[in-house]
Structures are given as C-alpha cells and as structure tokens.
Amino acid sequence: MSIQHLITLLFWLATATLLAGLWRRSQLWRQGQSADFSWINLLAIPKRYFVDLHHVVSREPFIARTHVATAGGAVAALILVAINYGLMLYWNVLNWAILIATAIMLVGVFFVWLRRRNAPSRLSRGAWSRLPYSLAAFAIGLLVLSLPVSVLAGSVAVLALILLMAGSAELALGIGLGGPMKHAIAGLLHLAFHPRQQRFNGKLSTALKPIALDVITLENQEFGISKPSDFKWNQLLGFDACVQCGKCEAACPAFAAGQPLNPKKLIQDLVVGFSHDEKSSHDKNSKGTDAKFAGSPYPGMPIGEHSGSIHAPIVPSLIEAETLWSCTTCRACVQECPMLIEHVDAIVGLRRNLTLTKGELPGSAPQTLENLRQTATVGGFDRKARYYWAVDLNVKTIAPNIPVDILLIAGEGAFDMRYQRTLRALVKLLKAAKVDFALMGEYERDTGDTARRLGDEATFQKLAKLNIETLNSLSFKRIVTADPHVLHSLKNEYAAFGGNYEVLHHSTLLAQLAASGQLKLGKSDETRKLTYHDPCYLGRYNGETESPRALLKSIGIQVNEMERSGMRGRCCGGGGGAPLTDIPGKQRIPDIRIADARTIGAEVVAVGCPQCTAMLEGVVGNRPEILDIAQLLASTLELES
Amino acid sequence: MSTSKAKRINPNRILNTTQNGIKRITLSAPEVAENIPEVKPLRTPTKPKNFYLTVTHADRGMLDDHAHQVIASAAILADKETTVVALVLGELREDIASLGADKVIVMPEFDYQVFQPDAELACVLKVIDSLQPSRIFMPDNMIGDGELGRRLIATQPSKSAATHVIEIDAKHVASYQAGGSLLAFADLPEIILLAANTAETNLPFVASAIPDEQLKSTSYTFKESNSDYKNLGMLPVASATIALEEADFIVSAGNGVSNVATLETLARSLDAAIGASRVAVDDGKFPRDKQIGASGKTVSASAYLAIGISGAVQHLQGIKDCRHVIAINRDNSAPIVKRADLTVIGDAEEIMQSLILAIAEAKQATSNQTMSNPVN
Amino acid sequence: MNIIKHITTLVSAGRHPVSGEPRHCHNDSLAMTIGLDMAKSISAKHHVLHAGNPDNKALSEYLALGAGQIDVIPISDDTDVVDCLATQLNHADLILTGSRAESGEDSSLLPYLLAEKIGIPLVVNALAIKVKANTIEVLQFLPKGKRRHVTVKLPAIIAIHPLAPASLKFSYARQISGAIKTLLVPYTSTSTSVHKTQWQTLASIRKPIKLKAPENKSGHDRMMSAISSESKGGAVVNNGNSVEKAQVILGYLREHRLINF
Asked: Which of A216, B63, B325, C27 lies 20 to 30 angstroms, CA to CA, from C233?
C-alpha cells in the first residue's frame, strides 16, 4: 500500500472517528431540554462566523490574524485532503495546494506557540498548552507528505505519517473526547442554534426569557435550573463552544474584586457537569470533577473539590451558591466572549432555582424580595412617598383622564435623597424644553428588575403584569426614565407580557430635544477634568453610549475616556442585586471603577444611573465628584438665565 | 443651633441681705441657689379607701427607669382617697418615695433572672387578694413584668386589661394595633401594662414609701415540686458575641480608628460589643454585620462610645435610641459632637491607650477594695 | 422515648405596616420554621393552624415558607379565637406560636389565654427549643444579651421570640404546591372574650402624649424649665493630655453607673 492510500485510509478513519465523536458529543447536548431551533440556520453559519464572531475576535487583531492563518489553513488543507485523498484523486496540483495551506497553518501555529510562551493568566493551560504542538504535528506531517513523492525517503514519510496521525487524533478523536478542538465543531453549531438568534440580526438581545410558573411545570421539573440536564440543549452546546480564552475572566468585575466568580470556570464546570453521568456508568466515581480545569480558579476556592454529573444538583456540589450570587449581571463576559456564549442566562437560570424552589438567598436579598412582594418597592417604602421630591416643582401627575406626551417614571432612586437631585434637574430640563410630561405618582410600582436578576421570576412577573395593567390604562406617547434598570425592564422585558412601550433614557430624550433645538442648553462652566461612566444597563443592555457623550460635548465639556468605556464599560458593582447579596471579596467593585477614573486624573465622573451614582459615591476617601448628566446639563440653564 | 460658650446670666439673681438689712444683688457674687435641693410636699392619701398596686421586678437592688415610670404614673393618677402600693419582686436598695409610692412591699426571694412564673403569680394573687386594688400597673417589659402581667390577666377574666399601653391619662389608655397601623383607645382598665416612656418620673411631690410589713408577712402558698417549670440558670454570654441590637455597651469605630487591635482591647476591657461606621466597614476593617446606621443596624445601648466617627446623618439615625453617647474625635466641629453627651477631642489611638490603662487601674483598685473589706 | 407526636404551630395573618398588604407575621413564621425543623428531627407530625378567613392572602406566604398544609378554622372577626383554637388543640403535644401578632389587638395575650384555657404551661420569649425526655428545654431571651435555660413539662405552649435564630426561606414552588384546608368544625362560641376592654381605633397615628403630674407652676417656673430643658448638647473636652481625657471618660461612665469599677 502506498503512502497515498495510507493517507486516504487515515482520512476516512479520522472522518469516521470524528463523526462518531460528534455523535457522542451531540448525545451529550441532547440531554438538555428541548428548544426552538431551525435547521436552516446551519446555512447561516458562514455569515455568522465571518461577521458576528469575527467582530468580537477582531478586537484583538494579533489573535484574529493568528486564528485566520491557523484555522483558515487547517480548513483549507482538510477540504483539499478530502478531495484529493478522500476521493482518491491524488492529483499533484492539489498536493501543491495542500502544501500552501499547511504552510499557512504552520505560520499560524507558530504564532499560537509564540503566544503560549508568554500566555496571559486568563488563558487556560492543560490540554490547551499542547495545542500548538499537536497542530504543528498535523501541519508538518501533512506538509511533508504533500511534497512530491520522489523527495521523500521512506523513513521521513513514516515519520511524517506518524506526525499526521498524532495531529489528526487531536482534530478527530479530540472532538469526541472533549479535547480543545471540540470548540471548532461546537462553536460552528452554536452559531447556528444560538439561543438568542436576534444577536445575528445586528440587534442587541439582552432581555431575560420568562419561564412558566404554573403548578404543571413544577410537577415536571423544578423551577429554574437545578441539574445540568435542566438547561436547554442549545445552551449545553454553547457551553461546549468555549475556547477558554478567558476574555470573560478578564472582563468580570466580580473576579477582579476577588469574589468567587470566574465566568470561564463556571462554563467549564457546567461542561464537566453535562459530560458525566453517574447512572449510566458502572463506575461509582464517574462524577466529573473540576480537577482538570487548568485556568484561574474562582478566587478563594481551590480547584479539585467540586464535582457533578448530568442529573445531579449543580449547587453546591459542582458550583457554590456564592459564585452565582457574585454576578452583577453586567454582561461584560457576554460582550467579550468570542464564542458568543451567554453566561448571564446560565447564572440567572441557576439563581431562579435557588430562589423559586429553595428560597435560599444570601445577605439582604430575602428582605428586598419581601419588600417587593409586600410594598412594590425595593426598600419597603410607602409608594405614595416616591414623588415627594417633586411636590414643590409644580409638575402634574398622570391620571387615566390626563393624556400626556411623556410619562416620567422615577424608579427606586426617587426614594434616595441623592438621586432626587438628579430627578429635580431632569424635571427642570424637561420644563425648559417645554415638554408635555407628567409624573407617574403613586401608580408606580417597582419594575421588578432586581427581583428578576435575583431569580425571583414570580415576583417580577407579578409586578410586570400589574405595571402593564396600569400603564395600559394611562394615555401617553413615550416613557422617559433616569434609571437604566427601569429602561431595560420596560423596554426589553415587558414585551413578553404584552407591554410594548417606547421607553427612553433621559440622556436619549435630552439629546433628541437638544438636537431639534427644543432644548436650548448653555455652555458649562465646569473646568474640571471629566469622564463618563457607562452604566451597564444603558450601554451593553441598550446600546446607548452616544447620547450622554453628545450632550456633554454640546455644553462644552470634553469627555476623557477611562479604561473600558462604551459597550465595554466596567461595571460599578450595583447591578443584579449584587449589593444585596454582598458576597465578600478582596476589594469592592466600585473602588476598581473609581481607580480607573483616578488613573486618568478625572475630577468629575458623569453618570446616568441611580445605582452607579450610589455605588461610586460610596467609595471611601478622596474621589472624583459624581454628577448625573442631567445635573451637568441643568447647571447650564442657570447660567443662561 | 448656637453652640456659644457664653454663660447665660440668670435674670433672677439671688438677693443677699447685708448686715444693715438691705437686700442687694451682688453681680460678682457666685450663684448659690442652683444647688439647693428642692423640698417637695409630701403626698398622703387623706381618706384612704382604695389601692393602686404597682408590680415591678428589681435588678440588683434597683428598679429601672421603666419601673420608675410605672410607679410614678400610678402616683400621678391616684386621687386623695387612693393609696399607691408598690410591690417589688427582688431585693430593693433604693428609696422610691420620690416616685410617689405610699407603701412598699419587697419580696427579696424573687429575682428576675430566676424563672419561677407560677410562684410569682401566686405571690401577686395573694397580695391582690388581701388589698383588692382597683387598678394594677405593671411595666410591659422583657424582664419578667410583661410576662407576669399577662399571666395575671389570663387568670383574671373578670378584670379589664390593656397591654402595650403607650399613652395613659386619668380617663383612658391608648395602644397601637394591627401591626402599628392603628391607634386604639379604651377607658382606663383595671390591669395596665405600660410601655416604656409613657410617664414623667419627676413628680412635684413625694410619698412616704413605708415598708408594709403586714402585707409582706402574708405568705403565699407555693410548692416548687408541683411546678411545671424548672429554672436551669443563666447562660454565660460574652458581650462581644451579643448581637449589636441587644448590646448595652457598644464601642464603635469610624474612619479615625487606625488600629483595630487597640479598639478590640478597649472593647474587651469594657466588656462591650464592637460596632463600626459604614466607612470603617467599607474599608474592610470590620465585617458588614458590625455596621451601625441607616443602612446597617439600629442600636439602643445605654452607653455608646463613638471613636473616630464623624457622625454622618445615617449613622446618627442608627444610634438615636442610645442613652449615653460619648465621642472621641479629632475634629470638634464634627456632627457627632452635637449628638454626644460627652466629647473628648484628641487622637483616638492615644486616648484609647490611656483609657485601657485607666480601666485596668480602676479594676485593680476595685478588686483590692473588695478583697480588703469583703461584703457580707 | 419520643413523646411528642404532634406539633402544632399557630399562625396569624399579618399586614405590612406601610402598604397594608396582607403578609405572614414574621414572628409566627419563625415559630413555624422551628416547629418544622423539630418535627423533622424527631419524626413528629407538624400541623399549621390558623383561625380566621381562609382566603386571606397572608396564608399563602406561610405555604411559601414551608407550611405544606394550613388548617384554617373559618371564623368571623367577632368570634372568640381562644375558645375555637382551644377546641382544636386537644391532641397537640407541643404548641408553638410567635410572641406577638401583627393583627388584631396586638396584645400578645393569646398564648397566655390559650394556656389558661387548655390548662397547660407556657414559656414565652423562646429562642431555641430542645426535646428532653418528657420536657422541653427552652433557651429564653432576656434583654441586654442575657439568656436563660428553663425546662417545661409537656404538653406545653411555647411562644417564640422575634430574635429566634431561624432563617426563613421563601419558596414560590412551595407556595403554589401547598394547600389551605378549611376545617369544617361546627363552632359556636360558648363564652365571650376573656377581658372586656372595649377599644376604639383611630386610623391616623400620632405621637403618644406622656403622662405628667399636674403642677401649679408660676410663669417664672415654666420659663425656667423651658430654658433649662433647651440645653441639650454635651460637654466638650478640649484640654489636657490623653491620660486626663481618659479620666474624664471614666468619670462620666462611673457617674452614670455605666461601669461597676
């Protein structure tokens, strides 16, 4: 048998192995719950790969180019091998093409190797460290074998064949066994069957999905996610796509603060969970452990002490509850993930089980949820008191028979004396623009944002339905709010319950009014160095990063950008109920953010969110002044008059 | 509010009578009248017909403010024909004449720390039986009176009663109902369990407070072996482990405390619980559960030692129920100074160190004294 | 060995002081949680009993907190609760309840009246309970951080203190899977309420007025007392070294009997 035939044999053997492995892997994914999906989306993979995924990867051009060379070379080589050897054509010209493709791949692999030599801590080691070598073996083996036959000495050919077999094992066998290269197949399929298909239509998809809360659902399954098999199958597939690049880890505010959360490890723990099954195995020790994880641990939690399997409860044996409660739901991990994995959905799913089924929440979270149930406010306040800050402002309150253009919804910040200054500034601006607006008054109930992030879907849905009922009985065209959390719930999450409203953040509305000339702003006398902090629920959740900046520019303030801003802004630590669960870490998240501001020498931090205001103002010691956009704008009105 | 140190001059200066018999006001003369004890008239029931009975527990020979208020309110409401009888469960070493008690019955065999509800009830019932008081006043507290009062009410179905009374006058009582959302009024009942701070104890009269030996000797019958209850004694609890909400002495640290170890030593020597301001907690010096203030815990200690705490509004909210606030602070314009009953300006660390030494010396002196002349 | 077969927790319907929304009474929920834990550990049966309106939304919160099933004696507001509860509690070996309800007269008298009616002992302000042969050992709350151990013979009523260290777990799943069972006991009130205080309620809350002895003061006296009571704000010590300052503090503590050395 000639070398050529051996390669053909090897190709088909590898293909068979790959298919068997894929079958095995897909069996693992299929343990998840059913999900809506469409086979047609398989056709969308190339576009999604080259546009949507590349958009994320290209943020780091070095690694993007490395990946283009490595993966592009490998894919080209594999296709060519399939044609030339798979179909037993053995054309010389294709061999030359294979040679070129593998050479490109080898260049890519060289850069992978180079990067691995001084890898940042966010990258996983372990099996991932062997990747440059196994890929190099594949590339070199194939390269040598595609040289003209006459050049090859027999021993060199055998050696090359062995290298090729070793490399093919990584590609073919490795996928079925869950090696690093599984990311290629799982990643592509994940693009096709992604749980948030809207992401590929150029839109943001940040709303959490509702779950059924009736007794029948409860009889079949616990609420939320208790075991790995409670995830939808396409979520499990998504977890398998993880390349352990650690971009999420580097972006995670909780990880940076030393709280026991690392989004990368969370995903890997879930992979461990769904790829082991205690029942189907005779070996009692077939529970998968996290011992093989070769990346950064959850801060303060050693690796190797947790294990799980497909039908075993995840908390606490596989993942500790503190890990889940550390998350601020800021979506920085999702924003950074090149494989478009949805970490926050997984965390909230797991939280839902802890909250709805077990009722176990740390810190002051249980008290907050009780307040929301009993008073429809986060702090247990009297709803009538929400608009006390406006009693002397002579603004009308909406009523069923009073139609207005704009309805102002203040949110929980209205009970906070600090944020009342922001709200008063906003009212002043709306008055200056002669907008027809009204306050929501005691009709307003909390939107349930905090309840939903804490996993209390029942309380969220109850509040959502009550609010929708109220809003539908009122007559207004648009809603404006100074609270991005209110914005997100009303705009993105109420639609699932029949509430469709045009909701604007105050910066968006004010920017529109300023642009149309309806709001005439003066020039600010602010001479201090200023920066703008993007609230996660405004930027990443709603894509609004420009209006605040445009407004500041229009009043003559130059915005100095901090490290991480806009859609990649760093969290203040105030979202997702994190200040309530208050999981201890080494430092506090807002301290990190203020350090960002200090680094660029900012003396003023402009904000647009009551949570960010409270968190950043809570930083001890000498810190920049925190001012809301509305306050900065309103001060220019005074100068004018 | 003005914090001027200028001394106010009493517009009614004391008259001095000169040798010539001329009355003069000498402006430079020191004022002496301030400290002359006021002589109050004696209240005695002229035609004693009926009785008001107060029942209170004593703690180490003393009645607390709450008990004082109960006796005083009985005395205020008593008319000329009514004798106020104070039944004190436990030893009594203070004079309660100034609270308006005409007669005093002391039952030294009881102690609020010893659980014997049936014995106490038997005793009270016996006194009631022999006196037939028209009204019974008790403090609605947690040191046994609130409980004893309710046991009494349950055994006296014919008597009208009111508990958690927050307002009382000659005609009626008032109490919060339905979780504090309603204020309810009723005619003055026969058994009244008074909440704290419902009456002034500064009376314009005194009473004779005669020990009633006759009533004391009317012994009640109670057999301990028949009791359903058994007292197993107090559980020793170190102050440091007491929840802040319950602590009676709190040493609390703010931003001005650099050395946590010194503070802990001071707290130990005073047998006090440790608290902290939000700043100190945020700084990581103390765990979150030590935070006192609007967003932390509300405390009601008798003594609150605020060290290096400037006194943000939120913090002052958390200590509004503290009785004695002592501040150690570097800045005499800090808001805590206005709240504190005593403020010492200076370096927190130095003063804490000196205080630790002073306490150690004082303790040593006390123990020497006890050893040299042992009590009993 | 185990003589406790039935534990009954009495729960009342509370309402939120600000919003007026019906809710569980926190203190009763603590009692129920302690009862459930004890029933589990000694394999006794746990019952939750309420006298009142079976449709009260507050009851579903007890289901969320783990009641499983709540038996409700349907009574109207003017029926005597003590009498009707007593008829249902004949077989309970241990009766638990909170120390103070959030509804009705808030007199905290119910456990006392019930104990008197049934003729069994009562221990109030319990923080923790433990079964010991034919008695219950109770850790009792006393103010200023003091704690006391007592035992009480069974059957007994134990009223749990609001600071009892039990953590409440509110689960929506339990809330919708639990059951509220209305007891069909023909109940006719045989006796009227024990104490006959007639209350008249006022919806508006005002600050209570302190009782003061009437005084025949002259105008001058009143002015003097008005001036003297104004002088709030404590002494400030600026001078002296730290040793002297420490002595000032020690002196203050001694003067007000805050320390005993």
From this structure: B63
Say if A295 falls within a structural domain.
no
- Residue B99 maps to a domain: yes
* Closest partner CB to C199 (pick from B77, B155, B185): B185
- Residue numbers of A between 551 and 610 with CB closer than 8 Å to B: 582, 584, 587-588
Tell me, yes or no, if C201 comes closer than 8 A to chain B by beta carbon. yes
According to the model, what pLDDT value does residue B24 have? 64
With CB atoms and an 8 Å threshold, state whether A620 touches B255. yes
Only one residue has tokens 């040593």, namely B364
- Which domain range does residue C19 map to? 6-182
Mean pLDDT throughout B244-269? 91
Is B210 in the same domain as B306?
Answer: no
Do B208 and B74 lie in a common domain?
yes
Pick the residue from chain B with its C-alpha nearest to C141: B142
> Which residues in chain C are closer than 8 Å to B182, comparing Cβ atoms?
201-203, 205
HEC string of A214-283? CHHHHHHCCCCCCCHHHCEHHHHHHHHCCCCCCHHHHHCHHHHCCCCCCHHHHHHHHHHHHCCCCCCCCC
**Chain A hits for B181, Cβ within 8 Å:** none
Q: Do C213 and B204 touch (CB under 8 A)?
A: yes
| Closest-CA distance of chain A to residue C63, Å | 12
Q: Which residue has the higher pLDDT, C226 or A20?
A: A20
Total tally of structural domains belonging to chain C? 1
Lowest mean pLDDT among A187-196, A339-348, B207-216: B207-216
- The pLDDT assigned to A148 comes to 75
Same domain, A471 and A601: no
Q: What residues make up the domain containing B301?
A: 239-364
Same domain, B204 and B249: no
Q: Is the dihedral of CA A414, A418, A420, A422 positive or negative?
A: negative
- Which H or E run contains B365? helix B348-372
Contacts of A587 in chain B (CB under 8 A): 284
Q: Which residues pair with B137 in a beta bridge?
A: B54, B192
Q: CA of C176: how far to CAs of A461, A558, B177, C64, in Å? A: 15, 55, 31, 8
Are residues B200 and B65 part of one domain?
yes
Same domain, A504 and A548: no
Question: Tell me, what amino acid is at C39?
Answer: A
B111 and B220 together in one domain:
yes
Whether residues A341 and A217 share a domain: the answer is: yes
Residues A484, A460: one domain? Answer: yes
Residue A297 lies in a domain: no
- Nearest CA distance, B279 vs chain A (angstrom): 6
How many domains are there within chain B? 2
Instruction: Look at C173 and A356 and tell me if their CB atoms are within 8 Å.
Output: yes
User: Residue A442: which domain range?
Assistant: 374-515
Nearest to C108 among B112, B163, B303 (CB): B163
| Tokens at B252, concatenated | 């609390």
For residue A478, give the 3-state DSSP assignment.
strand
| Chain C residues touching residue A452 (CB < 8 angstroms) | none
Q: Do C195 and B157 touch (CB under 8 A)?
A: yes
Rg of chain B over Cα atoms, rounded to whole angstroms, equals 25
- A247 in B contact zone (CB under 8 Å): no
Q: Do C172 and A380 touch (CB under 8 A)?
A: no
Query: What does the mean pLDDT of chain B come to?
Result: 85
User: Is the same domain home to B76 and B214?
Assistant: yes
> Which residue numbers of C have CB closer than 8 Å to A's CBs?
16, 18-19, 21, 23, 64-65, 168-177
d(CA A317, CA A305): 9
My answer on whether A109 and A240 are in the same domain is no
Q: Which residues in chain B are contacts of C149 at CB distance < 8 A?
A: 232-235
Q: Looking at the 3D structure of chain A, how many domains does it have?
A: 4
Q: CATH number of the domain that C153 lies in? A: 3.40.50.620
Chain centre distance of CA A172: 30
